[in-house]
Design a protein that fits this description.
By secondary structure, the protein is α+β, with helices and mostly antiparallel strands. Helices cover 36% and strands 30% of the residues. The chain has one domain.
Length: 334
């Protein structure tokens, strides 16, 4: 074989190997929206595209409050239709009783969200604005807090209600290195590899913070034997049906054993409480979740798995009017 031909084949093979390696690394990397999030206590990520199709079966769209309808009319943005991905960072506040509440949020929202109409709405409602890293950051007051918003791409918006500009600036800084597949926060580096492959929604770190009350976690009115500051890896993925998996990392094996026993007892009690409930999609979904719930212990980890149904997911929002924390952002507390 001619030397030039061998050299050409070698270069082609090297390029193909590099491309394959890049594709493999990208498949293992966190979503770009999550990589842009600042340092935080917890991270939540939801891919709405597949979930939207799953949840829309037989579920009536939620009612809209007038303020939200005005936002839709002004911007052309409808979260239910246009939001494809949401990555949310949770920041614990030092004073949970202070003006900023127990938790602040920083978000990266992806979808058909950006454009001149949104800029016009932000300019009309912002009390101030600044230019940072080539982006305009709008400060919009909402429910006693200042929400900072910046368009950072043709389909991406950064939002934060953290008390200072630190978090919104961090997201804009990270946007410069977004092409690096394993860029991101410390929390993402520590725990994303534990998220099951192809998860449609997942959370890592202290993701129970929004559900915590007096330091405890309450779900469906039941107080769980877990602390709001517990380190948790949770995921929802499709395996023929939607499966929920929640894994808590306890301090030691003994504590994990105690919590697994308490959770198992709680599931049994909850099954008894829900048995007499009338038949509807939400109740049937809750019963199915409890029926399929399994609690296991693996060393210092407590693992809970269960099945999720469209009725249960839709029932959590079907009776609630759409009333975001601010017209610019979906209500992260839900």
């Amino acid at each position: 074989m001619h030397r030039r031909t061998r050299r050409t084949l070698f270069i082609v093979a090297a390029v193909l190997i590099l491309l394959a390696a890049a594709v493999f690394l990208r498949s293992k990397a966190p979503p770009e929206a999550a990589r842009l999030l600042p340092e935080s206590d917890g991270i939540l990520y939801i891919n709405f595209k597949p979930l939207r199709g799953f949840m829309s079966k037989g579920i009536k769209p939620p009612r809209r409050v007038p303020e939200y309808q005005q936002f839709v009319d002004a911007t052309g943005i409808d979260w239910e239709r246009d939001l494809d991905e949401a990555a949310i960072a949770l920041h614990r506040m030092k004073d949970p009783n202070g003006p900023n509440g127990p938790v602040a949020y920083s978000m990266v929202l992806v979808g058909k969200l950006t454009g001149a109409r949104l800029n016009g709405w932000l300019e009309a409602h912002a009390t101030s604005q600044e230019t940072y890293a080539g982006h305009t950051v709008y400060s919009v007051p909402s429910e006693g807090r200042m929400v900072r918003v910046a368009q950072i791409g043709y389909d991406m918006v950064a939002v934060s209600n953290y008390p200072t500009t630190e978090m919104i600036h961090s997201m804009l800084d990270r946007h410069r290195t977004a092409a690096l597949p394993f860029a991101g926060s410390t929390l993402l580096a520590q725990h994303y590899h534990e998220v099951p492959l192809l998860s449609l929604a997942w959370g890592v770190g202290q993701i129970a913070l929004p559900f915590g009350e007096r330091g405890a976690i309450s779900v469906f009115g039941l107080e769980l034997p877990l602390k709001a500051d517990s380190t948790i890896v949770a995921s929802v993925r499709w395996t023929g049906s939607l499966r929920l998996r929640v894994e808590e990392i306890a301090k030691d094996e003994q504590i994990a054993g105690e919590q697994a026993a308490q959770l198992g007892t709680l599931v049994t009690v909850a099954r008894g409480f829900t048995a007499p409930l009338g038949e509807n999609k939400a109740n049937d979904g809750l019963k199915e979740l409890l029926k399929t719930a399994e609690v296991t212990q693996k060393r210092n980890r407590v693992v809970v798995t269960a099945a999720l149904t469209p009725g249960l997911l839709g029932g959590l929002m079907a009776d609630e009017p759409v009333a975001p924390e601010t017209p610019m952002t979906p209500d992260a507390s839900k």
